[in-house]
Each structure stands twice: as structure tokens, then as C-alpha cells.
Design a protein that fits this description.
Rossmann fold; 7-stranded mixed sheet; 30% strand; disordered N terminus; binds S-adenosylmethionine
Length: 239
């Protein structure tokens, strides 16, 4: 069979890749990649590769929990026209790959640390579908006017109150039926408890407003992290 640059070979069996996410052969291995929205430009030192005149940015599951979720076969509900509220964008590593994916949508990137915000603003200046928001994710009413009614919330804040942050942001900013993609870092919630118990406790809180569609641990890429994809229940479905 002829080799396609986008053919999976060495990765484990996957759900279909999300739109605008590719698997590219590089140095004898299949690697995840997104098509570079700003050709010739790197965001965090990632490798750029060209195939058939198109430039891609390799996307390492060790650097990005979203890439790890895809490598682990999770179905990711992000479409090219999705609007995404990204909580905990840091300097834009993962957010920039989402920006490559949502060619007809937007990424509202919330971050509260001024030092990384400077780098994030640099990334957003080049990427016209990214909007930087210097704000505290525990106060979604402060950015609802800019980032209200999104299709997806992506949350990676590494805070003890992660479930509450997700619920509050969904109430303020997520469409009914919209999706939550979230990474729970056990050690941030409780550094002494068994991670399994921490995950169960956080999932129980989320159950009130979300239907969990998929969940997986992110080993071997990220230790003691649970990633989940959930759908926000409509008002009439809430108990
Ligand atoms: C694990 S890092 C995120 C890495 C990033 N998601 C990536 O993959 O490129 C967590 C980030 O969340 C930010 N953060 C933590 N609590 C926050 C809050 N309450 N509001 C906004 N940002 C927060 C931290 O400053 C940090 O940059």
C-alpha cells in the first residue's frame, strides 16, 4: 500500500483524529501534528515539518495534555468552527495547537499569571483567532461578556477547586449541551490522598451538571492526571 504522510502506523489504535489534527511520519515514527496557522513560526520550540507543501507543527503528548488525550484514543469534541474558552492557557503551548484546529472559531485564553501572560500575548498577537484574557478563572463573570456562550471549555488550571471552577464557568460561559474537556491533577486537589479517591470525588461533583462521556488517566505522559470529556446537561435534564 502506498504510504500516506497522514497514515497511522506506530500509534496505538485511535478514535478518529479530531478534524485538523494529523498523524505524520517523522524519523520513523507517527507523531501528532497540527497544520501551522502561521507558517514559519514556532510557539514553544516545537519541530516544524513540511509535507506536500504544507507546514505542520509536531505536537508532543509529553508537552500537552490534550495531545496525550488524543494519543490515548479519547474522542475530542473540537470542530473547526468551535469557540473555546481555555482556562489556564499559560504561555500558549496547547492553546496554540487548538488555534491551529479551530480555523473558523476562536480560542479565548484565560490566564492569571502576569509573567506567562506576556508570552501568551505575543502568541495571540500573531494568531488572530486567539484572544488573551488576563483574569482569574474562579471569576467567570469578569470575562463572560467577552467569552460567553462558547461551544467548549478546556480546563487545565491545576487548582484544588477544579470541579467548582468548571461548574461556575459552565454556568456563565458554556452553551447548554456544550462540552467540557478537563484535566484533573490529583496532587493539586489533595497532595496526600490516593489519586483514585480524588478523581472519584471530583467526578461526583461534576455529575450534577455534566454527563461524563469519556475519561482516562494520562500515563505514561503525565502522572496522576485524569482527563475527561463531558457534556453540559440541558436545564430540563438537571435533577
Ligand atoms: C498546568 S499549567 C497549564 C498548561 C497549559 N494548559 C498548556 O498545556 O499549555 C496551569 C496554568 O493555569 C494557570 N492558572 C491556575 N489557576 C488559575 C486561575 N484561577 N485563573 C487563571 N489561570 C490559572 C497557571 O498560572 C498556569 O499557567
Amino acid at each position: 500500500m502506498p504510504k500516506s504522510p497522514h497514515k497511522l502506523s506506530s500509534l496505538p489504535p485511535l478514535s478518529p483524529l479530531p478534524p485538523n489534527v494529523y498523524s505524520i511520519q517523522d524519523a520513523g515514527r507517527a507523531r501528532l501534528a497540527t497544520r501551522n496557522l502561521i507558517p514559519g513560526t514556532r510557539v514553544y520550540g516545537e519541530k516544524l515539518v513540511s509535507r506536500d507543501g504544507i507546514e505542520y507543527r509536531l505536537w508532543s503528548p509529553h508537552r500537552s495534555k490534550l495531545a496525550a488525550m488524543i494519543e490515548k484514543g479519547m474522542t475530542i469534541p473540537i470542530a473547526p468552527d468551535s469557540n473555546i474558552l481555555y482556562l489556564g492557557a499559560a504561555s500558549g503551548t496547547t492553546a496554540s495547537h487548538i488555534s491551529d484546529i479551530v480555523t473558523d472559531g476562536r480560542v479565548f485564553a484565560v490566564e492569571f499569571a502576569p509573567r506567562v501572560m506576556r508570552d501568551l500575548i505575543g502568541v495571540c498577537t500573531k494568531r488572530k483567532n486567539m484572544v488573551p484574557i488576563l483574569a482569574d478563572a474562579t471569576k467567570p463573570s469578569s470575562y463572560r461578556a467577552i467569552a460567553g456562550n462558547v461551544d467548549v471549555i478546556y480546563q487545565d488550571v491545576a487548582q484544588p477547586n477544579q470541579a467548582e471552577i468548571a461548574i461556575d464557568n459552565a454556568r456563565e460561559c458554556l452553551k447548554p449541551g456544550g462540552h467540557l474537556i478537563m484535566v484533573i491533577k490529583a496532587r493539586s486537589v489533595d497532595s496526600t490522598a490516593n489519586p483514585k479517591h480524588v478523581f472519584e470525588q471530583e467526578l461526583t461533583k461534576l455529575d450534577i451538571e455534566f454527563e461524563v462521556l469519556g475519561k482516562k488517566g494520562l500515563e505514561p505522559f503525565h502522572r496522576d492526571h485524569l482527563a475527561l470529556v463531558a457534556r453540559r446537561l440541558h436545564q430540563e435534564d438537571l435533577g
